[in-house]
Amino acid sequence: MKTITTINFLLRSLKYPVLPPDAFTPSPPNALKEAIHSWTTSGIPHKVLIRLIDETYQRSVGPHIQTLKNYEAFSSEVYGELMPGFIADIVRTTGLNQDSIFMDLGSGVGNVVLQASLQSGCTSFGVELMPAPAKVAREQLEQFQTRCRMWGVTFGKVELEEGDMLQSKRVNELIPKVDVVLVNNKVFLESCE
User: Which fold does the domain 43-192 belong to in CATH?
Assistant: First the structure.
């Protein structure tokens, strides 16, 4: 407990330096905020990105794993989940940036949409047909916003929709403007063509 108290004190002193007694004296620099500010030009460090994504995922998706397993095998509801390292490569390779729009058709629990937004600052849109993953995605977005505030990082606009991508008015509005579209599915039924 003594060690944890010491560590917490040191972290607080870094995050909230002691203000000078004279109100007109400039405040001391905040090393943590300065480091995070530098990320706007250099990009969020990969380890921080993965940590933030993993924390958000574990807190939001982990408790709902049993609910998310309710789907028909070998149907269009089956998709493979993409890992954060692979998504980081996609974002880098496609050159997504704060002026870009990213769309995930069949966005599941929303982790790809959130990561693209955080990593590049792009506007991200995801649409998911199945109610359980769409609900978890909304919860994950709330957790993501909280975690980003805690870390002091910013991300691009995120929009999530529950519904059929083939019937979505929002998909139709955005598709002509989108820079990158992701569709990750193992099986499409004939009726989906």
Answer: Rossmann fold (3.40.50)
